[in-house]
Amino acid sequence: MKISIIGTGYVGTVSAACFAELGHRVVCVDIDQEKIDLINAGIAPIYEEGLPELLKKHAGKRLNATTDYEFAVRNSEVSFICVATPQDPDGKIDLGIVKAASSSLGNSLKNKKEYHVIVVKSTVVPETTEKVVLPIIEKHSGKHHGDFGIAMNPEFLREGKAVYDFMHPDKIVVGSLDKKAGDIVASLYSGLECEVTRTNPRTAEMIKYTNNAFLATRISFANEIGNICKELGIDTYEVMNAVGRDFRIGQYFLNAGAGFGGSCFPKDVKALIGKASEIGYEPLLLKSVIEINERQPSRMVQILKNKLGKLSGKKIAVLGLAFKNDTDDVRESRSIPVIKELLDNGVKVSAYDPMANENMSRIFNNVQYNNNAADTLHGADACLIMTEWDEFRELDKEFNVMKRKLVIDGRHMLTPPGKDIEYVGLCW
Ligand code: NAD
Fold first, then answer.
1. Fewer beta carbons within 10 angstroms: which end of the chain, N or C?
2. How many CB atoms lie within 10 A of CB 408?
3. Distance from C-alpha of 12 to C-alpha of 30, rounded to nearest angstrom
4. Per-residue pLDDT at 278
5. Domains of the chain
6. What pLDDT shows up at residue 232?
7. pLDDT tens-digit profile of 268-293?
8. 264: number of CA atoms within 13 Å, CB side?
């Protein structure tokens, strides 16, 4: 089929490349000309494993990009809205970009005679597709629902493994108001070995939030248990290894550490809190999930203060800036509050990430960025490990160049190294 993808960020670019790989013809739309030029040149605008190969293979053939909505709508049968849904200053969902994309799609639909389906793939709070997107499309196109189709198809991919996840999903959810639109969207995935869960748009929206809120809850739960274990001199990883053997619990997302970040978990849990409050429900558990998460990074700095005393003038190495390994994404990375607190305490911060130095330098320009761990550690009074990059697991002799060989591990990366290194785990 012919598909247009609105918004070429992480979700949009990966979806576009993977739909092309499944044999569809894809037009990408973005307001950022630079991204459009990169995609047309077959270059990935973001770092994602497997994405460069797919773009190189399909760009200029089954995959094209433009800033022209009308062209994209005219040359496709289905449009996916994949734009960002950030949080507003109160933590609630900011639908401004979704509304702008919906208006543009509506305007472009006005002169189109053929049936077209609009699919919301962005993560939006329940009721958004029906009560926000649909009315905007109707208003701007002058058409009514039925003249065009509307559906909600949440995305569950993990950054870093996004291409793999798209091609090997464990669930595909399609929420639609009518069968015709839902059938069309479901058929786009027929090349994948996965059953499609069919439902209405608001349930599809809620499935996405419940999924992320549950995973975030497991992490905060693991951190709470980890914090208690630490005080009691118990290794929380030993505890969770045993607990996770219970088939009702499982091993995943029980790793205590510096907390969750990224573009999804923090904002999605906060958006769900916002939606619940809007309808008069106080989500006590979800609020605690966020609060525990926001306290974890400070625990790293507290350990540092307990060990070094006054931090002013000290040089601290921060290893890992991305919110997790295998991505260059620093959005809501737990290293941001840690670096901020260090800088506020007059620390000289020396940092390194295999992928995310550049992105983090847009947030902190007063940090020394290095090209490897050894340079970062040189002369440092302590080292904080903030991201679970595999290469940090191998670190050993590199610590020898530190002024004081104090390593505070926020991600359970190192088996306590030799005696001459002072190793402290955040929760173990
Ligand atoms: P992103 O910020 O990486 O990309 C959004 C893109 O939309 C940008 O390229 C931007 O230039 C473009 N854009 C902005 N306004 C536009 C407009 N009016 N018309 C066309 N393009 C416009 O966002 P993302 O991380 O890909 O997330 C997109 C959505 O998917 C969000 O709702 C997010 O919560 C959800 N989601 C993200 C992930 C993830 O891992 N990143 C996973 C699942 C779901």
1. N
2. 24
3. 9
4. 95
5. 2-199 (3.40.50.720), 201-428 (3.40.50.720)
6. 98
7. 999 999 999 999 999 999 999 999 99
8. 20
The residues of the chain scoring below 70 in pLDDT are none
Task: Say how many Å lie between the CA of residue 97 and the centre of ligand 1.
Answer: 9
> To 10 degrees, what angle do helices 10-21 and 51-58 make?
60
Lookup result for tokens 């997302």: 253
First-to-last C-alpha distance (Å) of the chain = 52
In contact, 256 and 428? CB cutoff 8 Å: yes
Which pLDDT does position 418 carry in this prediction?
74
pLDDT digits over 391-406, tens only?
A: 999 998 999 999 999 9
Distance CA 335, CA 214 (A): 23
Catalytic residues, by residue number, are 264
Predicted local confidence at residue 157, as pLDDT: 95
Which pLDDT value is given to residue 378? 98
Residue closest by Cα to atom 41 of ligand 1: 10
Tell which atom from ligand 1 comes closest to the C-alpha of 124: 32
Residue 207: what pLDDT?
Answer: 98
Global confidence as pTM: 0.94
Give yes or no for residue 72 CB within 6 A of ligand 1. Answer: no
Instruction: Look up tokens 């390194």; give the residue.
Output: 352
Strand order in the sheet with 406-409: 368-369, 348-352, 315-319, 382-385, 406-409, 422-425
